[in-house]
From TrEMBL:
<feature type="domain" description="HTH merR-type">
    <location>
        <begin position="9"/>
        <end position="78"/>
    </location>
</feature>
<keyword id="KW-0238">DNA-binding</keyword>
<dbReference type="InterPro" id="IPR047057">
    <property type="entry name" value="MerR_fam"/>
</dbReference>
<dbReference type="Pfam" id="PF13411">
    <property type="entry name" value="MerR_1"/>
</dbReference>
<dbReference type="InterPro" id="IPR000551">
    <property type="entry name" value="MerR-type_HTH_dom"/>
</dbReference>
<protein>
    <submittedName>
        <fullName>MerR family transcriptional regulator</fullName>
    </submittedName>
</protein>
<dbReference type="InterPro" id="IPR009061">
    <property type="entry name" value="DNA-bd_dom_put_sf"/>
</dbReference>
Length: 313
């Protein structure tokens, strides 16, 4: 059959055969106003021209891509371009993909840990937070421990710069690290301990000169203590005297002070305040989440030096 211009018209059955779409689907699109018929037979059956068939292919493609009928109507009415629709749906799909990746990581973490229902719910809750909501958890922790304190600006800046960024496709280890970090920074005891460290820093700021080569001093401590431990030297033993004397002298020089009983008591206090395993764990977890190199556990080495100092002051 042809229309008044001589163009071929197709019945709904013929359109179905040409496109592979069921008659029921084509009729649904027609009833929904997405695909208006080009004409009708004398008996009232719908007819479609070639342009309608082409539009139907576009409708099918957009529907398979998840575009809703209301948007498709706007595309066909030229109220919105196909490229704009594609861009919007690509963004939506990207968000869905990120969500699915997070869910996959959670499930793998749960499967690997043999997690309880409570752990599963906690993991699911935390990873569903937006990046901004996750950053807010850490920011709230830092706001509390720094509030009203005149701490060293460089140190505060380092703490605030160390914000975990859970990637779009995290590993189970990164999910576990994020959950552990969230629990850690919301632990009242941990917050109180870090606050105590910040208060001590603020109280002694200006009284104590921060060594210019603090990192080298720490490396020296770790090197000497590791060697002592490898030699099975107990921190309270006489064999540890040489290690303590060398390190105490190095610290005194770095701080511009003179080694002696008074300095060692002050050094011991500083070491006790600054040596917190959970603070070290905080940075280790952030490194895992952010895909940074692993941070080794060093607090046991400093604990050896602290014990050695305690035995001699």
């Amino acid at each position: 059959m042809r229309d008044m211009d001589g163009d071929r018209l197709y019945t709904i059955g013929e359109v179905s055969r040409r496109t592979g779409l069921p008659v029921k689907t084509i009729r649904f699109y027609s009833d929904s106003g997405v695909l208006a018929p080009s004409g009708r037979t004398h008996a009232g059956y719908r007819l479609y021209d070639l342009a309608a068939v082409v539009r139907l292919d576009l409708v099918r493609t957009l529907r398979e891509l998840g575009v809703d009928l209301a948007t498709i109507r706007r595309v066909l009415a030229r109220e919105i371009s196909v490229s704009a629709v594609a861009a919007a749906h690509a963004d939506a799909l990207e968000a869905q993909i990120r969500t699915l990746r997070l869910r996959r990581a959670v499930l793998r973490a749960v499967a690997g840990r043999g997690s309880s229902q409570e752990e599963l719910e906690l993991m699911h809750k935390l990873v569903r937070l937006s990046d901004e909501e996750r950053r807010r958890i850490i920011a709230d922790f830092l706001d509390e421990v720094f509030e009203g304190l005149d701490v060293i600006p460089e140190f505060a800046a380092k703490m605030r710069a160390g914000i975990p960024q859970l990637p779009d496709d995290p590993s189970p280890a990164q999910v576990e690290a994020w959950v552990e970090l969230a629990e850690l920074v919301q632990d009242p005891d941990f917050r109180a301990r870090i606050r105590q460290m910040m208060e001590h820093q603020a109280a002694t700021r200006g009284q104590i000169r921060v060594p210019d080569k603090a990192a080298e001093l720490a490396d020296l401590t770790l090197e000497r203590v590791a060697a002592a431990q490898a030699a099975a030297i107990a921190p309270e033993s006489p064999e540890a005297n040489a290690v303590v004397d060398e390190l105490a002298a190095a610290y005194a020089t770095a701080y511009g002070e003179t080694d002696g009983p008074e300095f060692r008591r002050t050094l011991l206090e500083r070491m006790r305040v600054g040596n917190e395993p959970r603070a070290e764990r905080y940075w280790q977890l952030i490194a895992v989440i952010n895909g940074m190199p692993e941070i080794p556990t060093l607090t046991p080495l400093f604990e050896w030096f602290i014990t050695a100092l305690e035995a001699r002051v």
